[in-house]
Amino acid sequence: MYEGIITPIVTPFNRDNKQKINYNATEQLINHLINKGVTGIFILGSNGEFHVLSHTEKIEFAKRVVKIVDSRVPVFAGTGACYTGEVVTLSKEMEDIGVDALSIVTPYFIQPSNEEILNYYETIAKNVKIPIILYNIPKNTGCNIAPNTVESLSQIDNICGIKDSSGDMDNLKSYIEAAKDQNFDVLVGSDSKIIDGYKMGATGAIAGTSNVITDVVVSLFKLLKSGEVKKAEELQNDIDVLRNVLKLGTVPSILKRSVELANISPVGLARKPVNEPSEQVDEKILEMLSHYELV
Fold first, then answer.
1. Residues 193-227: pLDDT tens digits?
2. Residue 108 covered by a domain
3. Is the CB of residue 264 less than 8 Å from the CB of residue 29?
4. What residues are annotated to the active site?
5. What is the three-class DSSP state of 286?
6. Annotated binding-site ranges
7. Any idea what the CATH number is for the domain that residue 186 is in?
8. Which residues are annotated as a binding site for pyruvate?
9. Over the stretch 143-178, which tens digit does the pLDDT of each residue have?
10. Helix (H, G, I), strand (E, B), or coil: what is residue 162?
11. Domain of 219?
């Protein structure tokens, strides 16, 4: 079972024109998160800027992360793409590297049919042995995985869960119901809905905000597990202070700047064409971090 708070880490880059991956900052960030109690490290997701990393960079980054994590928590690697063959190739390489599970987003830009989505995941699952977590984020991909598709896919042995970032609780509930008879975890991908998802039967969350306010998000889940729902609700509401600031720039520019200004790790800027936050936005970020006593 995948449960608790899994952090989809930002990918640290050097602050230069080439913006190459900063592995010292990567190690600093990962050690910070594990020491704070996250239950998994998820690389190459939306906040990890998978869409601007080359195949070679993804492979090298995964190798380094697996070595840094050293089996302290599971490592999830995003391998989704528009071409099934590309996903299969990258997924097999990630399996050879030693990641613990794959997170695979639906094809994006195009809008595949339910049958095409089913075939996409079935083909990938046949080519790897490690667990696969489906990734539903319709705002970015233009398509929502249908509940009956989830029901069919949940019957495949190594398809073990789904991250739902739709923000639609009826949609998340339909996934929980569709796979209730299978060994299949539903993970919340919308940080504002962690409590709602848990009450419905979600086993955990893949929460981007945990890059910054790790204590808040980890404590929220611990309180839920211990039945202290009222205290958990206070922390759930508190996450909105960060979420409101994240809207001030293109993903993941504000999240990365928050990690830096909180002195967690020098993760650098988002890759171009995303702009660096302005001084005025930095002031807003510092106000937010002050709220959490991180500066």
1. 999 999 999 999 999 999 999 999 999 999 999 99
2. yes
3. yes
4. 135, 163
5. helix
6. 206
7. 3.20.20.70
8. 206
9. 999 999 999 999 999 999 999 999 999 999 999 999
10. strand
11. 4-226
